Amino acid sequence: MTVAIAYPSYRQPKMRWLPAVPEHWNEQRAKTFFREVDERSKTGQEELLSVSHLTGVTPRSQKKVTMFKAASYVGSKLCQPGDIVINTLWAWMAALGASRHVGIVSPAYGVYRPHSADSFNPAYLDYLLRTRAYVAEYIGRSTGIQSSRLRLYPNQFLDISLIQPPRPEQDQIVAYLRAQDAHIARFIKTKRDLIKLLTEQKLRIIDHAVTRGLDASVALRPSGIEWLGEMPEHWKVQRLKNVAHVVLGKMLTTEAKGGDGDFKPYLRSTNVQWIKPDVCDVKEMWIAKAEMAQLRVRKGDLLVSEGGEVGRTCMWNDELLECYIQNSVHRVAAKPTMLPEFLFHQFFVYGKRGRFNAIVNRVSIAHLTREKLVTIPFTVPPVEEQQAICRWITDECKPLDDAIARTEEEIKLIREYRDRLIADVVTGQVDVRGWQPGPDDVVDDAALAALGDEQEDVTEEEDGDGED
Q: Where is the signal peptide (predicted)?
């Protein structure tokens, strides 16, 4: 854990968001240490890299990608180990980091190379540049009318002050934080394993209820679906297109286009999380008024991920928040013969049992196209029976849902602890120069992957400049 020892003396830094820093630490503008580079790939065959606010610069192969890959990556920007890579459009979300890889990134990104490889430990910068203090600086310096369209351009980044401990202290800080990250990653993995066990219990409850019903004495008949087997004889089987209206979103843009339209909040695949949507980070895109009625989400709609974890679904229950969908999300509006909640339970079972994966369109990346989605068969009990089943599922699953929610909250709290720990150490609020690793401070790069978000998807449109 943190050794709560302060440095002997401090001074006020130039950057207003930072706390007092150790007096002997250097502080200079980023342009003193880095220069912008714009080297382009001639073949497009280098390792394709993504930039995440959680994991920094990582190979795209380690991410879930929710859209088709580009036809060619010729002309993409090259980066080297030690380069700082910044997603110009999402810098205000801390989508940046120090690369540990030779690879290529979007032409819309900023790539900054150190004048001297000895000035900074890249891992120290990777921690420092994603702290809240620096994110506040990006926001303050970025250009744009609204947060969803802020851009951090090279001159703005290079004018930011970087605090620079002596290199041996940087190396010690990195060693200490990586050891703490290893402990935190193991904690998160244990909690995620618990969530998987709880989810499997919940899945068994729901699966039986939506395929067999609640009355064990009801006569059964063949459903005509191989994996489903028998079902209550009075139930029907209908394809999705017969019980719901299905709309796939469309590619949106960050810039106003000709014609009548407006900037509106939009939902991406990353907003679609099982049970309920994650709307803590909703951005805006330009939408033509003629398309708003089709793309707007309404209460009771199901939102279904088209890529990434195909079929991942949530139900929209907000009557006040105005949101629209883009082309990695299907909007499914149930017809009167199907309750949205009952349909959601079936989507949950299908997704967790891998039944969407079995039918997806695989070119280079899995995609659940609208053409495929609307042909999927669903069981359709009478509406009154659907209501009874939904009430029963709610009661039976409540203890499991509560346990899952508590566990997710514990993960959130440990992430907040990690953010504070990193900020304290990289800004010198805690002196770790005397720290020595113990027998439990084992760092495993594979285990550190748990620090990322299991549901974090990458889309071509998000990973670029959003203007394609």
A: none
- For residue 221, the tally of other CB atoms under 10 A from its CB is 11
For residue 230, being part of any structural domain is answered with no
Predicted TM-score (pTM) of the model is: 0.83
CATH code: domain of residue 375: 3.90.220.20
Cα 348-352-353 angle, rounded to 5 deg: 115
Reply yes or no on whether the pLDDT at 465 is more than 50.
no
Helix (H) or strand (E) holding 303: strand 302-305
Structure tokens at 116: 């001297």
What is the number of other CB atoms lying within 10 angstroms of the CB of residue 341? 19
Q: Could you read off the pLDDT of 141-195 as tens digits, one per residue?
A: 988 766 667 889 999 999 999 999 999 999 999 999 999 999 999 999 999 999 9
Residue 149 parent element (H or E): none
* Strand-pair category, 161-164 with 313-315: unpaired
Q: How many domains does the chain have?
A: 2
Q: Which domain does 292 fall in, by range?
A: 236-380
Tokens 């895109």, residue located: 285
Q: Is residue 70 part of a domain?
A: yes
pLDDT at 463: 45
Terminal alpha carbon distance of the chain: 46
- For residues 377 and 238, the answer to whether their CB atoms sit within 8 Å is yes
Is 343 found in the same domain as 429? no
Residues 91-128 have pLDDT tens digits of: 888 899 999 999 999 998 999 999 998 899 999 999 99
Three-state DSSP state, 246: strand
270 and 308 together in one domain? yes
Residues 110 and 30 reside in one and the same domain: yes
Residue 67, pLDDT > 50, answer: no
User: Using one digit for the tens of pLDDT, what is the confidence trace for 32-41?
Assistant: 999 999 999 9
Torsion of CA 412, 417, 419, 421, to 10 degrees: -170
